[in-house]
Amino acid sequence: MLETNRPPRNKGFYVRMKLLHSMRNNRNPEKNFCYRFFKIIIWFSILLYFFSSFLITRHKPTISRTTIVQSKPSRALFQEPSINFSALKNSHGPFNGMKIYVYDLPPKFNSEWLSNERCSSHLFAAEVAIHRALMNSDVRTFDPSQADFFFVPVYVSCNFSKVNGFPAIGHARSLMASAIQHISSQLPFWNRSLGSDHVFVASHDFGSCFHTMEDMAMAEGVPEFLRNSIILQTFGVKHKHPCQDVENVVVPPYVSPESIRTTLEASPLTGNRDIFAFFRGKMEVHPKNVSGRYYSKRVRTAILRKYGNDRRFYLRRHRFAGYQSEIARSNFCLCPLGWAPWSPRLVESVALGCVPVIIADGIRLPFSSAVPWAEISLTVAEDDVDKLGEILAHVAATNLTTIQRNLWDPDVRKALLYYDRMLEGDATWQAMEALSGKLDRSHKKSSVYSQ
Ligand SMILES: *[C@@H]1O[C@H](CO)[C@@H](O)[C@H](O)[C@H]1NC(C)=O
Ligand SMILES: *[C@@H]1O[C@H](CO)[C@@H](O)[C@H](O)[C@H]1NC(C)=O
Ligand SMILES: *[C@@H]1O[C@H](CO)[C@@H](O)[C@H](O)[C@H]1NC(C)=O
Ligand SMILES: *[C@@H]1O[C@H](CO)[C@@H](O)[C@H](O)[C@H]1NC(C)=O
Ligand SMILES: *[C@@H]1O[C@H](CO)[C@@H](O)[C@H](O)[C@H]1NC(C)=O
């Protein structure tokens, strides 16, 4: 549960105050009886009102995201939708009956890295989160002969540099290669399909290229040994790019659902948002030429130059542990590209109800079938950042509340968060949903059909 339930008490309180007030002015016992009777009737109607509104919200769990235009935040905002068991228990079971075998690899490939707590909580931790959720899920099968897909749990993003604390992924390719060496020598399934029904997570900047710098990533491309497989990766662009030259699903970066819950407890979605536009993160005043490329293609520098002294913009360059509470206070949250187009800000903004302003040309966003990005975010071209002020002011004066209501749909928030136990509609669930669209790769399914 992300949200605490907040029963709308105010009305009942108001009525009770009025009743108490009139009863105090009334000494006549007969009239007093009338008031009691009246009070019971009032309470009964209030209960009936809430019960029926509860039924109505329950019976319409999929209020279209585009048409939420009530004048008050609805109860649905504060409730996680219940699981639709009839959808799960259709003739094939969930995900068309898809089953996944999770390889049990030696600890050096995964669990050993968890001795560092950051391994399961930093922005690249989707590799850990998806593995965890699969281990406890009904999609998992312990019998590889029954599996459609084979999940290879290798954590490559947890070798934190002793110098700057960033994940060093120089070892990633060789770690992956030795994992494949291990599974292909132990069991027949890799060799059977040459990896085409095997699933990996690549959750750092340039996904399956395993490099932090784009030019190096592009030059090396997806390692040969992974090219037949399916990669769940945070990197995605709409144009052709060597780092997505492989069957892939774009997944969101990891943001701890626990941290979101804690932040929302302190500052609820519909609370006061006193910051107009927010960004905290690396913004170089004088961007460096790193082998021909500039951080954020100099977009962040342009934002800082133009809006650094604009009072509507709350721009900060330094790290601050409490930044989530700033997002929760903001109307617009800028999500400009860094080295890679994606950033954890996308997820944090959505989860904390701040309209993401996506500034990353050509970015491919995660789970577009579940998350109506066009209705919950704004996209500003990299070349247009010097018009941000006008663009945002125009939206604030016209459709900001519409976008916010769309954004505050709990289903949207859930689709971008990974829970330890997979929930219907959460990020792991969406990834599985996407995988189930690739069942034509399943050896099991194709042997069933060919019989
Ligand atoms: C539950 O799922 C089934 C099958 O997908 C669907 O027909 C039905 O409308 C859903 N029920 C609700 C309440 O959403
Ligand atoms: C972790 O990264 C460092 C620096 O890149 C490298 O020297 C080391 O071998 C890596 N550790 C493992 C276990 O791969
Ligand atoms: C898979 O193929 C490799 C390379 O051809 C071979 O060394 C290995 O023994 C094979 N694995 C199995 C389980 O037969
Ligand atoms: C950036 O550096 C590259 C070489 O690393 C050089 O070819 C290029 O001209 C530089 N660009 C600018 C604008 O200085
Ligand atoms: C809000 O307005 C902006 C600018 O006019 C437009 O680009 C955007 O699509 C609108 N969004 C919604 C959800 O109506």
UniProtKB/TrEMBL annotation:
It comes from the Eukaryota. One of its GO terms (cellular component) is Golgi membrane. Its main location: Golgi. It is a single-pass type II membrane protein. Residues 96-393 form the Exostosin GT47 domain. Pfam families: Exostosin_GT47 (PF03016). This is Exostosin family protein. It comes from Perilla frutescens var. hirtella.
